[in-house]
Amino acid sequence: MADKAKSVRLWQEIVLALAFKVLVLTVIWAAWFSAPEDINLDDQKVASQILSQQPQKEHDHDAVTGTR
């Protein structure tokens, strides 16, 4: 009898944990991935933008001359 109660309790905890994870993933998706910034954006535009950009230094001290 006690084993059956533990089994039911374990299943309840597993289902609750999975439901919570689905909820969190849904919130993350809605916050950051549900609406793109540009609806005219396609694969070709993204690829050309990524491949054409040169690395930019953020600060002047990033490119120190005369050091190894």
Any chance you could write out the topology, listing elements then pairs?
Elements: H1 2-32, H2 43-52
Content of β-strand? under 5%
By DSSP (H or I, 4+ residues per run), the number of helices equals: 2
Uncertain segments: none
Q: What is the CA-based Rg, rounded?
A: 25 Å
Major β-sheet profile: none
**What is the averaged pLDDT score?**
82
Portion in helices:
55-70%
Number of strands: 0
Span between N and C termini?
Answer: 72 Å
Question: What structural category characterises the helix and strand content?
Answer: mainly alpha
Shape: elongated
Describe the protein's architecture and organization.
The chain has helices at residues 2-32, 43-52. The mean pLDDT is 82. It contains 2 helices and no strands. It is an all-alpha fold and 68 residues long. It is elongated and about 70 Å long. The protein starts with a helix and ends in a 16-residue tail after the last helix.
Please outline what is shown here.
The protein is an all-alpha fold and 68 residues long.
